[in-house]
# Entry
Amino acid sequence: MTHSVQSVLTRSRLYAATLTITAIVCPGMPAMGQYSPSMAATAAYSTSQTSTASGGLDGSVPSGAATNEVLHLTLRDTITRALRYNLATIESGENARIARGQRLLALSKLLPQVNAGFSEHVEQLSLATFGLKLPGVPAVIGPYSYSSVDASLSQTLFSFESIQRFRAARTAEQAAQLAYSDVLDVVTLAVGSAYLQVIEAGSRIEAQEAQVRNARAL
# Structure
């Protein structure tokens, strides 16, 4: 009886670790009603503890068609899926790109501004508007066309406000990049830890089941 109870508790830990990986990697988590009440309670408690430790990184975006088949993932595959589909990594990556864009925008205020334009004109000239009437010359000359190319260069020699804005944007970009790296590390740690817990729980289940068979035989 003792070995059976230990086997059930070990299975609960296995379910809890599996739920943690599912919450971070997959779009949705399995319903708690699929398990027994004792297993569901243990799994929910362990999942909430892991979620708190990982900083609330649960949630991901769906990708591809849903399937009922079991996916056999290696540790590398699991971490790769988590980093690719986890909402926290996606949001943090977008924030880093936005910060980079703001830095480039602030930098553009310090660089020379070059403006260029090209235009083409088609006109007609009426001699009557000038009060001219020449023998053998048409009253309306044209149409005729001409093109023009314009270019201008401007440079702000010194702008303390622009310099400060660029420094602030550069610091914000560095902070966003560091935050993104931190999220990647946390997701990797959470998923890797849960994956190893699954392996450990699976080994414990096999050991407990072997002890149960041995006890029954004796």
User: Anything to note?
Assistant: Confidence is low (pLDDT under 50) at residues 1-5, 27-54. Strands lie at 113-126, 140-154. The first strand starts at residue 113 and ends at 126. The chain has two domains: 2-95+171-217, 113-154.
